From TrEMBL:
Residues 1-29 form the signal peptide. The lineage of its organism: Bacteria, Pseudomonadati, Pseudomonadota, Betaproteobacteria, Burkholderiales. It comes from the Bacteria. Keywords: Signal. The keyword Signal applies. This is Tripartite tricarboxylate transporter substrate binding protein. The keyword Signal applies. Belongs to the UPF0065 (bug) family.
Length: 332
């Protein structure tokens, strides 16, 4: 059938109107699902750290996309527990979100008695933003060239060596404990009040081994002041493709990492979660965001809420036995 020109014009006009109407309806639905006013993104650590850097980058880009002011608020203390508890108790209206980590959603709840919140019941997962490898570093005095040789060295001299971390209960600390457990080695943990003093002692030779977050160790690896034997993730870091993983170089199945993910309080409306998750995934996919995350050795992800739910459960299942095996985490 052929249409006359007037009929064809009418059909095209109708189709255009339907398309515009659908787009307008979709935009209205998204607008209606978003929080009504400004959003506070709580960073449960001090300003200037890796989580703070990631949060401010994401907050700026998300604000531009959804047309809402997003204020980053640093609520440090308790290894991230104070800021996380604040969001857990916030109204479920999207006005307050959390940039959570493995510390807020696994390590702290498993080691604090009583825990100030339930990591799986008191939050609404929205999106996993990025993962950050931890890294096993050695002082130049250590002759082992790889993880296999290091394990042999440690087994030959039980109790002689120790390792440092940025503090009791931190992801690097537990990376070290998992390494001890899987490798069957006897090395003592030396906790520091942060990654910087621990790194200083590694460089100076006061400690022979250090587990650290790759973002903080990157400049020292590049300068050659320390040697990176392996990263703790299942895959190599794009920032240091020549550094193998612990799993591939001596301990198959070993995997730990730090991560940043956005959560809301429990019972956040599904429509709001869907919009925020979709927009966060779009933010993480932006080329400039990808470049900036990779520049600090973070691996961009951007996930659906369901994937984050699965991750939190898996992290609790993994770290529970490790924390129990070392008798809990006594913090100074």
């Amino acid at each position: 059938m052929e249409f006359s020109n007037p009929t064809r014009r009418s059909l095209l006009t109708w189709m255009t109107a339907v398309t515009l109407g659908t787009a307008a309806t979709s935009a209205f639905a998204q607008e209606a699902a978003l929080p009504k006013g400004p959003i506070t993104l709580v960073v449960p650590f001090a300003a200037g750290g890796a989580t703070d850097v990631v949060s401010r980058l994401v907050a700026q880009k998300l604000s531009e996309r959804i047309g809402r002011t997003i204020v980053v608020e640093n609520v440090a203390g308790g290894g991230g527990a104070i800021g996380a508890a604040k969001v857990a108790k916030a109204p479920a209206d999207g006005s307050m979100l959390l940039m959570g980590t493995v510390a807020t959603h696994a390590i702290n709840p498993l080691s604090m008695r009583p825990s100030p919140y339930d990591p799986q019941k008191d939050f609404t997962p929205i999106s996993l933003v990025a993962t950050v490898p931890n890294v096993l570093l050695v002082n130049s005095s250590i002759k082992a060239k790889d993880v296999h040789e290091l394990i042999a060295l440690l087994k030959a001299s039980p109790g002689k060596f120790n390792y440092g971390s940025s503090g009791v209960g931190t992801p690097p600390h537990l990376s070290g404990e998992l390494f001890k457990s899987m490798a069957g080695v006897d090395i003592a943990h030396i906790p520091y009040k942060g990654g910087a003093p621990a790194m200083s002692d590694l460089v100076g030779g006061q400690i022979p081994l250090l587990f650290d977050v790759l973002t903080g160790a990157a400049s020292h690896i590049k300068s050659g002041s320390v040697r990176a034997l392996a990263v703790t993730t299942a895959q190599r870091s794009p920032s240091f493709p020549d550094v193998p993983t612990i799993a591939e170089s001596g301990l198959p199945g070993y995997e730990t990492y730090t991560w940043n993910a956005v959560f809301g309080p429990a019972r956040l409306p599904k429509a709001m979660v869907d919009v925020l998750s979709r927009e966060l995934q779009a933010v993480v996919a932006l080329p400039d965001v990808q470049l900036k995350l990779k520049a600090i050795s973070a691996n961009p992800v951007g996930s659906a809420p369901e994937a984050l739910t699965t991750l939190v459960k898996a992290e609790n299942d993994k770290w529970g036995p490790i924390i129990t095996s070392i008798g809990g985490l006594k913090r100074d």
